[in-house]
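queue> pop job 88
queue> type: inverse folding (structure -> sequence)
queue> payload:
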């Protein structure tokens, strides 16, 4: 290829010493190796197809931990919005969902935003390589949700000087903690083991290898 010149427009090929201008297009010839791929070449299958790890598996692929993480993130978000996180017994009798609780205590938002971000992150990963590369990010998001739950359970609630408060943590708070631990379990398995992947197009056996 280093000895070939090509027209930048029509891509006719000439020997380096044959001529310097394309007879059809009247354009100066360039070394073939320096020209970008033609439109026709870009429309063909690549000579060396993408590795199995880089194959696009589609939006609805659910194996290798992708499906469980998507389901967990949807359930976690629903638990945050609708399930009771705080059951107040005195001075009033009322219940607070995670969403309502976050409006009172802003750092509780970590338990809801984490699920939304986790869903978007996992959904956007459609190759095994992308999944495996995102394991740490998925684990951090799951840990953020778990930390929010743990802090609320174990941090003491300051007493009010004039009111007697009685309350209990709702099942939604415990459910969010359980879901985040399950998400953390799948985070380190996200993408699976690439050793069991098979090539997209197995060789027939008679090809010439370089």
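queue> result:
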């Amino acid at each position: 290829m280093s000895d070939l010149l090509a027209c930048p427009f029509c891509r006719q090929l000439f020997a380096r010493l044959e001529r310097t201008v394309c007879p059809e297009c009247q354009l100066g010839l360039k070394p073939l190796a320096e020209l970008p791929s033609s439109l026709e070449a870009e429309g063909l299958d690549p000579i060396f197809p993408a590795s199995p790890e880089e194959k696009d598996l589609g939006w609805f692929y659910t194996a290798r931990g992708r499906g469980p993480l998507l389901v967990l993130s949807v359930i976690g978000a629903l638990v945050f919005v609708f399930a009771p996180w705080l059951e107040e017994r005195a001075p009033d009798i009322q219940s607070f969902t995670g969403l309502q609780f976050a409006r009172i205590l802003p750092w509780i938002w970590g338990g809801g935003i984490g699920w939304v971000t986790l869903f978007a992150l996992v959904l956007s990963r459609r190759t095994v390589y992308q999944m495996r590369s995102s394991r740490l990010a998925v684990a951090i998001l799951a840990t953020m949700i778990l930390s929010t739950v743990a802090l609320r359970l174990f941090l003491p609630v300051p007493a009010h000087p004039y009111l007697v408060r009685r309350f209990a943590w709702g099942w939604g708070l415990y459910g969010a903690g359980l879901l985040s631990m399950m998400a953390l379990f799948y985070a380190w398995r996200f993408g699976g083991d690439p050793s069991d992947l098979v090539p997209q197009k197995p060789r027939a056996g008679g090809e010439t290898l370089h």
